[in-house]
Amino acid sequence: xxxxxxxxxxxxxxxxxxxxxxxxxxxxxxxxxxxxxxxxxxxxxxxxxxxxxxxxxxxxxxxxxxxxxxxxxxxxxxxxxxxxxxxxxxxxxxxxxxxxxxxxxxxxxxxxxxxxxxxxxxxxxxxxxxxxxxxxxxxxxxxxxxxxxxxxxxxxxxxxxxxxxxxxxxxxxxxxxxxxxxxxxxxxxxxxxxxxxxxxxxxxxxxxxxxxxxxxxxxxxxxxxxxxxxxxxxxxxxxxxxxxxxxxxxxxxxxxxxxxxxxxxxxxxxxxxxxxxxxxxxxxxxxxxxxxxxxxxxxxxxxxxxxxxxxxxxxxxxxxxxxxxxxxxxxxxxxxxxxxxxxxxxxxxxxxxxxxxxxxxxxxxxxxxxxxxxxxxxxxxxxxxxxxxxxxxxxxxxxxxxx
Length: 403
What we know:
The protein has helices spanning 5-15, 28-34, 52-60, 65-70, 79-90, 105-113, 125-139, 150-166, 181-193, 209-214, 237-246, 255-269, 275-286, 288-291, 307-320, 337-347, 380-392, and strands spanning 24-26, 37-42, 72-75, 95-99, 117-120, 142-143, 172-176, 198-204, 249-253, 295-300, 324-332, 351-358, 368-376, 396-398. The chain is of the alpha/beta class. A six-stranded mixed β-sheet has the order 1-2-10-7-8-9, sandwiched between helices. Strands 5-4-3-6 form a four-stranded parallel β-sheet, with helices on both faces. A four-stranded antiparallel β-sheet has the order 12-13-11-14.
C-alpha cells in the first residue's frame, strides 16, 4: 500500500474533533527583518505542544478492539511519546513508552502524567527501537513507529491541508525533516491541493540523512544537537520515495544557525520553540534569495524545549546581540576604583549584572587587581560607546569580543 491524498483526507476527518486547528499567522517582525512574507503554522500550540499528536491519534484510531485491549508501545524521547500517551489514555488504551536512559526527567514526567508506563533503555532511538519491538512481540502490544508508518504519516499530512485552507496563496512550505514522515505526508497533500507549490525540507547538519541520500554521499555521523526532534540517522524507505518525488529542495543548518533561529523566534515573535523549527527558520535565513518575492509557510512543529536549555540559549542570544557583555579591567588596587567604574557605566545607561573582583590570581601584577563586570546594554553600539567612555577616563578595559 502507498500513501495517497485520500488517506490524508480521511485522517483529517477522523482526527479533526480531537486535535487543534492551530493558527497559521504572519510573522510580522521576522517578515520585516528578512524581507519576505513569512507565515508560521503554530503546531507548538497543539495538544502536547507538538504535531506528533496528529499522527499518533490517526494510528490509534486504526486499531481493532483486540489491539486496543492489549495496548500499544512506542519508542521516543519526546514528542511522539507524549502524543501516543495523551491520545491512548484519552481513548482508554494502555500505553508503554520506551525512552533512552539519558532522557531528561521532565520529559519522562510529562509522558507519565499523560498516563503511559515509561521504560528506560538504551542511549538513543537506534539503541531503543529493537528493544521496543521485542517488547511488543512478547506482550502483544501494537508498535507505533514515530515515522515509518502510513497512518502516522497521513496524520501528519493533515497539517498541509490546514495550512493551504488558512493561507491558500502560499508559494512554498518549509518543513523540518527527521525520519521523513512529516514531510512525506505534507508534501503529498500540498502537491495535490496546489501542484505548483514548492516543498522545502530543513535538516540539522549533524543529522542530514535525507540530504546525504539525495547527494549520494555517506550519511551523517550524528552528535549532540539542539534539534533533537529531527535527530534521525536514516529515514524510512517509504518516506524517502515520497521525498524524492514531491520535495523540491532540501537544505541543512549547523548548530549555531539553529540556536540563533530559535532565539529569533523567541525574541521577535515571542514563540517558545524547540530546535527542529529553528532548523526551518535557519534554512530560510541561509537562502533568502530563494525566498524573495514568495509567500513562505514555516511549520513551527513543536515547542517542547527543556527550560534549563532555553534559559542558557536566551543568555547566549543576548550575549551574541551585544545586550549582555563582560568587561574585563586591570585596575590599581586602590579604594574607589569599582565605584568610579560603576558610576560611569550607570551614567551611560547600562545596568551592572555581576561583578567579580580578584587579587589572588597571578594574571595581574601584585599592586593591581582584575575586575570583571557583566553589563546589560541596548546593543553592540551602546557597548562600544560605554567602552569609549571608560577608556577616555583612563581605564584599561577589554570586552567579551576582545578577550
